[in-house]
């Protein structure tokens, strides 16, 4: 999110993965408020919504998602539909509704069919003619695990963005052949050493909060509901993890305080005296993948 909150980088990325040709490229971007998003009890909805205008004067809305959770495809479609119908609260007239493009960038493979490429595009078409008439909603999925090119094989800006998203957690410098200003800028942005103290403190607190949220929404817990006896155990572990994370964030007001009190047995150790998952996570280095996800 920290990478794509900068409009020029985001515009460069969108034009690349949407494969928009010269004369049809996105030239204006406006970040939209998510205040109208309904609270469905599932945590954060995604990255952000953007209102775009291309060089031909067409306007549309893009919603970006990057988290794979249970029933993910159902959620993606729900959020796309909600983004579309929520426009009525602003424009009032159906004639003023803008098309919505939902973009999903995800590490896993969603569509195992070998014919479906790394970037795949989904629209509603008429079955016999295969023509596209209903343009209110469309979906673009970027399945990073399908991207296999090496640094020497990169040619297009699309390639460089996909390589960045796939390899940024482990590489220390961009490919030597990269000359696109905005992809280079993205590499600089995710470098942890460029964070100020407030950003780093916010990252730690966000990571801990989201880890607690992930436990609560984990597929282990959902599967536990369906398997009877396992339900109680999974739910109990989730509740305990959330309670510990909340206690820590309430007890210590800054990152400095947290690290000074890592011997707090109530928060960071289990009943057997072994470090719990929060302590283990605080001890390990912050990865670039995590920095890209939480900031």
Overview of this structure, please?
With 295 residues, this protein is an alpha/beta fold. Strands 1-2-3-4-6-5 form a 6-stranded mixed beta sheet, sandwiched between helices. α1 crosses α5, α6 runs antiparallel to α8 and α7 runs antiparallel to α8. It starts with 6 loop residues before the first helix and ends with a helix.
Low-confidence stretches: 36-44, 291-295
Strand order in space, largest sheet? 1-2-3-4-6-5
Order of helices and strands: HEEEHHEEEHHHHHHHHH
User: What is the radius of gyration?
Assistant: 21 Å
Structural class: alpha/beta
Cα(first) to Cα(last) distance is 5 Å
Set out the fold topology.
Blueprint: H1 7-17, E1 26-32, E2 48-54, E3 59-65, H2 72-85, H3 88-91, E4 100-106, E5 119-124, E6 134-143, H4 157-167, H5 181-190, H6 197-216, H7 219-226, H8 229-251, H9 255-260, H10 265-268, H11 277-283, H12 288-294
Parallel strand pairs: 3-4, 4-6
Antiparallel strand pairs: 1-2, 2-3, 5-6
Quick overview:
It is built from twelve helices and six strands.
Key terms for this structure?
globular, 6 strands, six-stranded mixed sheet, single chain, alpha/beta, 295 residues
């Amino acid at each position: 999110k920290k990478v794509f909150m900068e409009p020029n980088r985001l515009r460069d990325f969108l034009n690349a993965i949407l494969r928009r040709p010269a004369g049809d490229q996105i030239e204006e971007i406006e970040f939209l408020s998510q205040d109208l998003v309904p609270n469905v009890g599932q945590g954060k909805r995604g990255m952000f919504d953007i209102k775009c205008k291309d060089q031909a004067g067409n306007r549309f809305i893009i919603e970006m998602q990057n988290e794979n959770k249970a029933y993910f495809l159902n959620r993606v479609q729900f959020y796309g539909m909600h983004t579309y119908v929520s426009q009525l609260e602003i424009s009032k007239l159906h004639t003023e509704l803008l098309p919505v493009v939902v973009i999903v960038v995800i590490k896993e493979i969603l569509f195992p069919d070998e014919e479906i490429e790394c970037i795949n595009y989904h629209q509603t078409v008429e079955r016999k003619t295969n023509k596209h008439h209903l343009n209110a909603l469309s979906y673009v999925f970027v399945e990073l695990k399908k991207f296999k090119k090496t640094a020497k094989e990169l040619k297009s800006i699309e390639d460089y963005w996909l390589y960045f998203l796939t390899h940024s957690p482990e590489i220390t410098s961009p490919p030597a052949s990269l000359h696109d200003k905005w992809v280079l800028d993205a590499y600089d942005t995710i470098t942890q050493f460029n964070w100020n103290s407030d950003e780093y403190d916010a990252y730690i607190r966000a990571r801990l909060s989201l880890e607690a949220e992930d436990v609560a929404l984990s597929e282990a817990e959902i599967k536990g509901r369906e398997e009877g006896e396992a339900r109680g155990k999974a739910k109990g572990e989730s509740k305990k993890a959330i309670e510990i994370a909340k206690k820590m964030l309430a007890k210590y007001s800054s990152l400095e305080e947290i690290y000074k009190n890592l011997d707090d047995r109530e928060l960071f150790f289990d009943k057997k005296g072994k470090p719990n998952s929060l302590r283990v996570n605080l001890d390990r280095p912050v990865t670039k993948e995590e920095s890209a996800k939480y900031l």
